[in-house]
Amino acid sequence: MFENIPKIEKPEFYIDLAIRTAKKIANNKKIHEKIKARRIVESEKLKVCCFSESIKANIANIASAFPSMDQLPVFYKELLDTIIGADKLKIALSRISGLCAAIDKLAQNFQNKVRNTNQVDDVLEAKREMYGRTSSILKKNKDAFAFIEESRKALKSFPSIKTKIPSVCICGFPNVGKSTLLSRLTGSRPEIAAYAFTTKQLMIGNIGKSLQIIDTPGTFNDNIRKMNWLERQSYLAIKHLSSTVVYVFDATETSGFPMEMQESLFMHLVKKFRAKKFIIYMSKTDLEIKNKAEFLKKYSTYDLFEDPEKLKEFLLEKLSK
């Protein structure tokens, strides 16, 4: 979705490119004027025209390369707002797009100045002024160019999540076996997507083409405004992409998290996402588990699995289209 957005260069790049493009076009254009001075004048006028058109075309390409914020799937829309700031990106793109009108005005001023003159010096002076003012306008907006480029990097590194197929989110504390479960369910090493604006990661895998599995790290603060970047990303994945959550319990407590904490997080998520179906997966069952019978009885109202293959069969049967 975002991988084809081209690199956004610094203003100086577009200025130099426009100058080179204009010079090349003018040099290749045969001007039918017998008097040398008039040929030079017409050539310089053509350069200015090509210069302004090149700048405007590249600016237009920047704006059109980004997808419409209003047409993005809600997950990406909120993720973009969380990582980058949708309003900030809109403002930056609007600033860049608005430069076209300013450049048009400068080009028109140039044409007005040289319309009735055949003096080479007058035309060259008007061209230098036009180039200089255009360069100044672009450079004054260098922060917008830079922010758009950073946004492009962030968007390009967003996870390639399929928003039109069923998704299952895996939750639980770190080191309880979520990544192992993800690998067992998908049969391959999951994709790791790192965002440019943060060191946090989401892990994604697929069961064939019919079901998507997303590892959603984080322990989730009660208030989304107080969540860290990772928790917000995970929260949005559960909120918008998944109807089912697989919660991983490490009853051996070798993860370093006692069962009391794991159960507390589980109930916290159940209350936060009341509309979601929760499934329990017990990891590390090859190790000794204390009070296993008591645990199974306590959560007997939930679908509970110890075998990843049986969990996979259950998910495919219930969720795949």
Compile the SSE list and pairings.
Blueprint: H1 11-28, H2 36-65, H3 74-83, H4 86-114, H5 120-140, H6 142-156, E1 167-171, H7 178-186, E2 191-194, E3 201-207, E4 211-215, H8 229-241, E5 242-249, H9 259-272, E6 277-282, H10 292-298, E7 303-305, H11 308-319
Parallel strand pairs: 1-4, 1-5, 5-6, 6-7
Antiparallel strand pairs: 2-3, 3-4
**Based on the structure given, which CATH architecture of the largest domain is correct?**
3-Layer(aba) Sandwich
Instruction: Average the pLDDT over all residues and give the rounded result.
Output: 86
- Top-tier CATH class of the largest domain: Alpha Beta
Q: State the fourth-level CATH superfamily of the largest domain.
A: P-loop containing nucleotide triphosphate hydrolases
The major pleated sheet works out as: 7 strands, mixed
The rounded distance between the terminal residues' Cα atoms is 23 Å
- Helix run count: 11
- Give the proportion of residues in helices: 55-70%
CATH topology of the largest domain: Rossmann fold
Radius of gyration: 29 Å
Question: Structural class of the secondary elements?
Answer: alpha/beta
Shape: rod-shaped
Beta-strand content estimate: 5-15%
Question: What is the β-strand count?
Answer: 7
Unreliable spans are 194-199
What series of H and E elements makes up the topology? HHHHHHEHEEEHEHEHEH
How would you write the strand order of the largest sheet? Answer: 2-3-4-1-5-6-7
Structurally, the number of domains stands at 2
